[in-house]
Amino acid sequence: MSTLSPHLQDLENESIHILREVAGQFDKVGILFSGGKDSVVVFELARRAFAPATVPFELLHVDTGHNFPEVIKFRDDLVAESGARLHVAHVQDWIDSGELQERPDGTRNPLQSVPLVESIAKREYDAVLAKERIFSIRDSFGGWDPRRQRPELWDLYNGGKMAGENVRVFPISNWTESDIWEYIGARELELPPIYYSHQREVFNRGGMWLSPGEWGGPQDDEQLETRTVRYRTVGDMSCTGAVDSTASSPDEVLAEISISTLSERGATRADDKLSESAMEDRKKEGYF
After folding, report:
1. I need a surface site. Which of 103, 131, 197, 275 has the fewest CB within 10 A?
2. Are residues 15 and 129 in the same domain?
C-alpha cells in the first residue's frame, strides 16, 4: 500500500471529519450504496473513521433489478467481509404494488426516487450519505429546495432539521474522479471487475455501448458484438454505457481519464440525457 500524497491525505482527513460530525449530530444514518467506486470509497473512509469498531451506518441499496451481476456479487461479498448492515429496496416491489410503472424504454434508474424516499422514511434515517453538497437539507417528501440550503463555512456543518426532514451528506464533495482513482490505487481498494478492461458482448444504442439483458436490449436492428471495454460508472444496465478501454489498473485508468474530454456521466449515462434537466429533476424528486 503506497503512502497518500499530501493532497489525498488532506481529502481523507476532511472526509473522516465529516463522517464523525455525522455520527455526532444524527441518530440513524444510512449510506446510499450502489457498489460503485464512489460508494466504495465512502465506505472505506467510514471504516477508517470508526476503526476498530464496525461502521455504525447501515448500507442502503436501491436495486433496480437491472444491475450488473458482477456489482451485486461485489456488494454481497463486501457486506459479508466487513460485517456491515445492508438494506435493499427492490424497485420491483414498487412495480408489483402498482405504485410505479415500467417505462417504455426499459430503464429503471428514473424509478429509484420513490423507493429511496419511502425507504428513508420507513428506516427512519435522519441523515443519508449520498451525492450532494456536504450537508443538504431535505423536506419530508425528500424534496430539495436550494433556498433552504445552509452556508458551509470554516468546516462547520449545521445538521439542524425539523421533524420528518432528513439531511443528505456527501463526505467526498471536494473529490474529483482522478482523486477517487488515485485513492483507490493508494489504498488498494477492491472494485467490481467491470471497472477494468474486459471482453464483453455489447450493442450500440444512441452512441453508447450497452449490455444485453432482460430489460429490453438489444432490439431487432441492434447487433451484438464483442469488444474490449470497461465502465466508468455503475448503474442500471439499460442506461450505463461501456467505453472502449485496455485499462486494467488504477494507474492505467488515471492515464486514460487524464486525456478524456468527457465527464464520467456525460460519457456513459443515458439517463442523464433524458432531458436537459434530468439530473436536477431527480434531485428535486428526492433521489440525488
Report:
1. 275
2. yes
pLDDT in tens, 2-14: 789 999 999 999 9
CA–CA dist 147, 254 (Å, integer): 37
SS3 28: coil
Q: Do strands 29-32 and 127-129 pair parallel, antiparallel, or not at all (unpaired)?
A: parallel
Q: What is the pLDDT of residues 235-268, one digit of tens each?
A: 889 889 999 999 999 999 999 998 877 656 555 6
Residue 81 to residue 212: CA distance in whole angstroms:
30
| Residue 277 CB contacts under 8 Å (≥ 6 apart), including other chains | none
**Structurally, how many domains does the chain consist of?**
2
State yes or no: cis peptide before 115, omega within 30 of 0.
Answer: no
Task: Say which residue the cell 481519464 belongs to.
Answer: 257
Helices 69-82, 37-50: inter-axial angle, 10-degree rounding: 0
Residue 63 sits in which domain range? 6-177+279-285
pTM of model > 0.90: no
Calculate mean pLDDT across residues 148-156.
Answer: 49
Do the strands 243-244 and 225-230 form a parallel or antiparallel pair, or are they unpaired? antiparallel
Q: Provide the CB-side half-sphere exposure for 67 (13 A, CA).
A: 24
- 9/183 Cα distance (integer angstroms): 9
Indicate whether 159 belongs to any domain.
Answer: yes
Read off the pLDDT band of 206 (50, 70, 90). Answer: confident
Q: Tell me: the pLDDT tens digits for 40-75?
A: 999 999 999 999 999 999 999 999 999 999 999 999
